[in-house]
Amino acid sequence: MHEHSAQTSGLIGRSPILQQVLRAAGLVASTDVTVLILGESGTGKELLAQYLHQHSPWSSGPFVAINCAAIPEHLLESELFGHQRGAFTGANHDYGGRIRAAAGGTLFLDEIGELSLPAQAKLLRFLESGEIHPVGAPRPIPVRTRLIAATHRDLPMLVAQQLFRADLYYRLQVVPLEMPALRERADDVLELFSHFARLAAARHGRELISLDRPALRQLQRYPWPGNVRELKNLAERLTILHGSDPMPLGLACLPAELRMSGGTPKSTGGPLVDTERQMLADALQQAQGNRSQAARLLGISRDTLVYRIRKYELA
Ligand SMILES: Nc1ncnc2c1ncn2[C@@H]1O[C@H](COP(=O)(O)OP(=O)(O)OP(=O)(O)O)[C@@H](O)[C@H]1O
């Protein structure tokens, strides 16, 4: 089996947990089965979908990505399935739709958990028949494309709440792949950071930034609730603000939430403690007192949360 360093798709990371996902992805890439990519926001689900496409037999075909959450519900059907001229007010031209645009390639449906029930029914019909029914068209049109779906939602729970069709769920999750959260692969943090710092330096015409040891250690300790996207944004922000600093950047350059994570260092005084206490209180309030949910909001474990609640006497 070839190395999964994934130069072609730019998927960075050597941690065993990511390599395991890439190995499974390599195995399904050559098949035409539907793949469901799970994982928190910002973990690289779309990048993995591109990886699957690039390693598929139809890599020279189109890769069409649609964020189901970004298209208003009343437009979604014609956006996906197309429409015929005159099918409804404003339909001045025939429109092939995005599924047809993905013919001979890969269709990536991001945030599939946000699809309305009618749209789910149509999607299922397409998956079973291989045909789409453009709005107002007299007959269906056959389309061959490989479907990859992704979601950060708990689909079985949506199924239980009857917000997601069980039959579609089973049809989608023939091969589920789970992108691990960044906090589960701290090994990858520094490699990703230097990758994004290099990209940012090139994009903004700045010097390549470097961090001192305590700052680097802090990057590895931080739980990254926004995952790789958050890390990428940080690298960009530091490059813009500090790309011309002569010295390696220290802890003081890191944003407050990063400096605070992994236990408050003894040397920090009142202000940071107050901020952390406030963040805990806000999260608890937002989660209406549900500790597991508050922990998730903060990107820390429930145990850590409980410990800190006690520490700050927030109970
Ligand atoms: N392993 C990785 N190597 C390099 N870049 C990565 C990696 N993972 C994620 N990225 C980058 O991080 C950003 C977020 O990734 P992506 O959009 O794929 O996440 P996502 O899980 O699809 O997010 P969402 O659920 O919010 O749509 C992108 O700019 C992507 O290129």
UniProtKB/TrEMBL annotation:
It holds the Pfam family HTH_8. SUPFAM superfamilies: Homeodomain-like, P-loop containing nucleoside triphosphate hydrolases. CDD domains: AAA. Keywords: ATP-binding, DNA-binding, Nucleotide-binding, Transcription, Transcription regulation. The keyword DNA-binding applies. Residues 11-240 form the Sigma-54 factor interaction domain. This is Sigma-54 dependent transcriptional regulator. The lineage of its organism: Bacteria, Pseudomonadati, Pseudomonadota, Acidithiobacillia, Acidithiobacillales.
